[in-house]
Amino acid sequence: MSKPEYITLGGGCFWYTEAILKELKGVIKITSGYAGGSVENPTYEQVCSGTTGHAEVVQVEFDPEVITLEKLLEILFATHDPTTLNRQGNDVGEQYRSVVFYQSEGQKNIAENLKARLEAEKVFERPIIMQILPMKNFYPAEGYHADYFANNPKLPYCQIVISPKLIKFRKRFRNLLK
């Protein structure tokens, strides 16, 4: 295994972003949390209030020899709507924004180049508004958010929102699954 890399991604609710990305070969660890805001060590309730500036994100530890950053970002683009401002489905607010928090200039370049390519190819009907920002802070979420879908598959949100996304994801990216 090569030296692991880290990237922090926001694609709306961290519960389904985690559920999707943790199934990929090369993903070592996913940590749900909050990033990009001004409040130190925020709680879930504070972030949900929309007053902290934080986004719900997942910090992804991955092996770049098994899965590239570009492939991770392609999957993020394919599994959420990067064209809506501060919204994913019925989840509305700055905490649900589409964002990549990069940790190096190389990661920034990969994210910006992929975004530009998808725009040029007109993959989406509307402009991509996903933010690409330097990583400044990350605060792990409360423990009950870890493996939320796996631990709560029968809850309505999991059934209505996460399950359909996982089914589409698994069909489209089955060759990348663990």
Describe this structure in words.
With 178 residues, the protein is α+β, with helices and mostly antiparallel strands. It has a single domain (5-173), classed as Peptide Methionine Sulfoxide Reductase, Chain A. Helices cover 34% and strands 22% of the residues. It contains 6 helices and 8 strands. It has helices spanning 14-21, 44-48, 69-79, 105-120, 148-151, 156-172; strands spanning 5-11, 27-35, 55-62, 87-88, 91-92, 98-102, 131-134, 138-140. The strands form 2 sheets. It has a 6-stranded mixed β-sheet with strand order 7-6-1-3-2-8, with helices on one face. Strands 4-5 form a two-stranded antiparallel sheet. β6 (98-102), α4 and β7 (131-134) form a beta-alpha-beta unit. The radius of gyration is 15 Å and the shape is globular.
